[in-house]
Design a protein that fits this description.
The protein is an alpha+beta fold. The protein has twelve helices and 19 strands. The strands form three sheets. Strands 1, 2, 3, 4, 5, 6, 9 and 15 form an eight-stranded mixed sheet that branches. Strands 8-10-11-12-13-7-14 form a seven-stranded mixed sheet, sandwiched between helices. Helix 7 (228-239) links the parallel strand 12 (220-226) and strand 13. The two termini are 30 Å apart.
């Protein structure tokens, strides 16, 4: 008999043991999760876990991590990150993960969690409604782009690395909280995120440039924030040693730091942000309402969307200069798409086949919506 319940602090030790054993089956060098994710793999966070027991034995589990996002400066979206998915080897091939995922989906839909985000296998999670969606700009930063601009070399002694000082952490968080695309973090969460292993936090602090930071791992910029002058100094320091990869959010609502990094890009491309599942279309549209009102100014129309997977139907109604979202079946024909196609429609980068766009008033002005989360927000 399979029993599914939230985790408790008393489950922490056995969950940490079984999740790492499960991952080490194919990756013997995998770090323990307490070391890898000190911000989420904590005993206090055990209520976020959903655990499956088979005949009283812990057999599988996953973690649902609240991920409230800000997009384009004015949009606040109550997202959920799904991660640390495991099935303990002796219990595999019994359908436990399907049962667990369906239970979590029912919970998210019941509680109207707008979107759930994960990084995973499309051939697996696509069966449950997740799809690659969102639009990130993937850059290769190189010194050659600015070789004709006068600039002095930047020495490592002119900047410094973060070594856990809590005062610095608060200043870093203040910079991060000004970004137009970010995950909303408390001060405690922010410090723990920066303690994830394998990366270095470089800080520039000068009276003539202000305060800024970049987080790097290997050849990748994971996160950045602060004054443009300070971040420019840090980027110059990085590209002196070779090319670096970085990811920018969509253009809409971008700030000066995105323009700075794009100006240093030798090459760039567009890629999906990750795998997205829309659990409640109406909740997504309500969250993006500040942006929708800007895009659909003076729009008089009625756009209906229906999810073929569960029949959820919403209407976006514009009349007399106002805009509102309504639930329920409309009187006019709806645009009907699968849940995976809805993720592509809402967030791009590829548009699903919707037939004749002219049949759906306002559709081209409305979508895609900007969505992005930094690498350090992943679980």
């Amino acid at each position: 008999m399979t029993d599914i319940r939230p985790g408790t602090e008393a489950d922490f030790d056995i969950v940490m043991d079984r999740v790492v054993v499960s991952f080490r089956e194919r990756n013997p060098g995998h770090l323990r999760f307490e070391e890898l994710y000190p911000d989420v793999a904590r005993s206090e966070a055990m209520p976020q876990w959903r655990l499956a027991f088979l005949d009283g034995q812990l057999a599988a589990g996953l973690q649902l991590v609240p991920r409230p996002f800000v997009a384009a400066g004015s949009v606040r979206l109550s997202g959920m990150g799904l991660g640390n998915v495991f099935c303990y080897p002796p219990f595999r091939n019994r359908g436990l993960m399907s049962t667990l995922l369906r239970s979590c989906i029912e919970e998210m839909e019941r509680e109207r969690v707008p979107v759930c985000l994960l990084g995973g296998d499309r051939s697996r999670y696509g069966n449950y409604g997740w799809e690659h969606a969102g639009m990130d700009r993937s850059l290769t930063l190189a010194a050659g782009v600015s070789r004709f601009l006068p600039a002095a070399q930047v020495s490592a002694v002119e900047i410094r690395d973060w070594r856990g000082d809590p005062g610095d952490a608060l200043r870093l968080l203040e910079c991060y909280a000004a970004l137009p695309y970010r995950t909303e973090r408390t001060a405690a969460e922010f410090g723990r995120v920066l303690r994830r292993p394998g990366h270095v936090v470089w800080i520039c602090e000068r009276t003539d440039r202000g305060f800024g930071y970049v987080v790097v791992r290997g050849g990748t910029v994971l996160e950045y924030a602060g004054t443009a002058a300070a971040v420019a100094q840090l980027v110059r320091f990085l590209v002196q040693s070779g090319s670096w990869n970085a990811v920018l959010p969509p253009v809409e609502g971008e700030g000066p730091l995105e323009k700075l990094l794009l100006g240093q890009a030798q090459h760039y491309s567009v890629r999906p942000t990750g795998m997205v599942r829309i659990n409640a279309m109406g909740a997504v549209l309500e969250a993006y309402m500040p942006l929708l009102r800007s895009r659909l100014q003076a729009w008089d129309g009625d756009l209906a969307l229906r999810c073929l997977d569960n029949g959820e139907t919403v209407r976006l109604v514009g009349e007399a200069g106002s805009l509102r979202v309504e639930d329920g079946a409309p009187s006019l024909p709806a645009l009907e798409l699968s849940r995976r196609e809805m993720a592509q429609l809402f967030f791009g980068p590829f548009t699903p086949d919707v037939g004749d766009w002219s049949r759906h008033s306002g559709l081209r002005r409305l979508f895609p919506l900007p969505l992005h989360w930094h690498a350090l927000s992943h679980v």
